[in-house]
Amino acid sequence: MCMKTAGLVLLLAAVPAFGASAQQSYGANADSKTFLEQGQHGEAAQKAAKKEKKVAVIIDDFGNGQGGTQEMLSLPIKLTVAIMPFLPTTQTDAELAHQKGYDVIVHMPMEPKHGNPKWLGPGAITSKMSDEEVRRKVEEAIDNVPHAIGMNNHMGSKITGDERIMSIVLQVCRERGLFFVDSKTNYHSVVGKLAANMGMPPVANHIFLDDSHTVSHIAKQMKAVEAYALEHDNCITIGHVGTQGKKTAEVLKNVAPKMQEHVSFVGISDLVRDIWGWQPSPILPSNNN
Description:
9-stranded parallel sheet; 289 residues
């Protein structure tokens, strides 16, 4: 009897010990699970932080069926397509870009300080125009580019330094619900100052991609774009269709997947909305909304 009692006591004594061991084991698993979950949340947070680094790629000179047009319109990243008005493929390029989900902006021809006037194309703004002529040119250009939500300058180093003319350009853009991107062909541009004074976002290009027409240079510029975005949270860069169009498209196609590990490619409208809180409020009718 004593031996049976002693055995029962030993058995009962072993139960709490087993329970504690199981609890400790479960606790360890729970801690491990929590740690893994925290790690996963941490990775998600890091990825979210990376996605906050944004790049807006603007491609100029659409509208004339130039080299690289189809390649650009087939890229799997979001672009901003800057289309010149009154050219043979202005309408079709705008429609295709819009269908792809790309942003469309008017690539407004403007007189340069230097350069061949033939490069301007139709509908250009020149320094000798009256206020009424400038206003009419801008309005007609906006009406000619379907789905346009903004505008930037084609050439224009002379005009973007002219307060009289740029005040009219920006006023028409604001009336029609468009923002203006200063392409920065003139380091002494007045666009940013005027835009800020008018309550518009002072949007400007940071880096030209293909000012030199080689694949190696364009690839180097894309590295500079990524570095700028990582340092400043965003980067606006401008490339072109035309002579260098296929090369620029090739580089973008090749480098974009790797860059997307660190930055997000967005439309210029996304950047303008996120940075400056731009919410267009057109006061005049437009066919672009």
